[in-house]
Amino acid sequence: MVLDGNVQPLSLIDMIIDTQNHTNPNNVIQFSDNSSAIKGYTVQNFLPTKMTETSAFQVEEKNRHIIFTAETHNFPTGVAPFRYRKIAY
User: Fold this and answer.
1) Which of 30, 74, 78, 80 gives 20 a disulfide partner, CB atoms 3.0 to 4.6 angstroms apart?
2) Cα dist. 74→60, 66, 69, 86 in Å?
C-alpha cells in the first residue's frame, strides 16, 4: 500500500489487525473468518445424567464467549444481523 507517496510496511488489513495487539485485552479470537470474539461469561448447564429415563441432573460450568461476525460476502449483515453461526467450545 502506498500512502502519500510512501510505501507502507503493512497492508490495510494488517494495520487493522495490528490494533488488536495494542487494545482490547478481552479478545478471545481476533479476526478469524470475518469474526472476532470477546470474553463472555460463565453459565451453568443442567444436563440429565441419563438420556433414556428420568434422572438427576449434573451441573457443569461453561464459558460462553460473545462472537461478532460480518458476513459481507454471503448475506448482508444489516439484513440479518443475528444469523445462526455454529460455535465450537
Assistant:
1) 30
2) 36, 21, 12, 16
